[in-house]
Amino acid sequence: MKQWLIIFCCVVFVMASVLTTGLVRALIDLSAFIAILALVWHQDSAKVENIE
């Protein structure tokens, strides 16, 4: 994945989190956390595949 995609996702989730409250905000924060973990995990696995 490209770095601009990670930055874009972070900006979108921060804006959505600021504009909402309560349960919706908690769900947006959770989805942001999962998305960032998925992006980082995908980058790490791609690097490992390139070594072999």
Beta-strand content estimate: under 5%
Number of helices: 2
- List the helices and strands in order: HH
Structural class: mainly alpha
Tell me the Rg in angstroms: 14 Å
Mean of pLDDT: 75
End-to-end Cα distance: 19 Å
Strand segment count: 0
The helix content is: over 70%
Segments where pLDDT lies below 50 for 5+ residues?
Answer: none
Q: Report the major sheet.
A: none
Please state the overall shape, judged from the principal axes of the Cα atoms: flat
Features of this protein?
52 residues, mainly alpha
Walk me through the structure:
The chain has 52 residues and is mainly α. It is built from two helices and no strands. Helix 1 (3-19) packs antiparallel against helix 2 (22-51). The longest helix has 30 residues, at 22-51. The chain starts with a helix and ends with a helix. The mean pLDDT is 75.
